[in-house]
Design a protein that fits this description.
This protein is of the alpha+beta class. The chain has one domain: Jelly Rolls (Sandwich). Helices cover about 55% and strands about 25% of the residues. The protein has five helices and seven strands. Helix 1 packs antiparallel against helix 3. The longest helix is centred in the last third of the chain and has 77 residues. It is elongated. About 15% of the residues are buried.
């Protein structure tokens, strides 16, 4: 693993382009060719696969938290396409774009860098796939839980409606019974009065 003190990293970062994106901007799009990856320094992004959100990532470089994405297209080569779409969800996002040329100039080639780190493009792609798949599974589980919560809320509201309606009907029934009793009493009194008059 590259150490932060490695002078080549400083050289690499000095030659990389910094970029700024705004809310709802698309940084990269699934299906498009790519020859660079991005390091999110500040902001929050959503990762979408086939139009569905599979992960949300945030970065804050001042607190040592950064996130990188788009490395698979770089590892596979320029003839391969992006496997996800990345969109900004924060007010703005600051990124560093690391191109294949940047890596070639600093480390000789992507392959040379991977060999130096005792890994391969295939291993890194597999890890990236696992990362996205894990995030996708987590998101599906969260959506399922959210759906269960919505169903429970609907059921509670329905029960409240039924209880309210039942209570209302019982109240009407009680009032009717009271009225009927009152009316019967008046009728009896009236009949007794008539009998007395006669």
């Amino acid at each position: 693993m590259l150490q932060l003190t490695d002078p080549r990293l400083r050289t690499l970062m000095m030659h990389c382009k910094t970029m700024e994106f705004w809310n709802k901007d698309t940084i990269l799009k699934q299906g498009e060719p790519g020859d660079c990856f991005y390091i999110l320094m500040e902001g929050e992004v959503q990762i979408l696969v086939d139009g569905k959100v599979v992960a949300t990532q945030a970065a804050d470089a001042d607190h040592g938290k950064v996130y990188y994405f788009g490395e698979v297209a770089l590892l596979e080569g320029t003839t391969n396409n992006r496997n996800s779409t990345v969109r900004v969800v924060s007010t703005c996002a600051n990124l560093v774009c690391v191109s294949k040329d940047n890596i070639n100039d600093t480390f000789g080639s992507v392959k040379a860098l991977l060999e130096e780190q005792h890994t391969s493009a295939a291993e890194q792609i597999e890890q990236s796939g696992y990362k996205v798949e894990k995030a996708h599974k987590r998101t599906k589980a969260e959506l399922k839980e959210s759906s269960k919560a919505d169903d429970l809320n609907k059921q509670m509201l329905n029960n409240m409606h039924v209880d309210k309606a039942g209570h209302s009907n019982k109240k009407k029934e009680a009032e009717k019974n009271k009225k009927d009793k009152s009316s019967k009493g008046k009728t009896v009194d009236h009949e007794l009065h008539l009998a007395y008059v006669q």
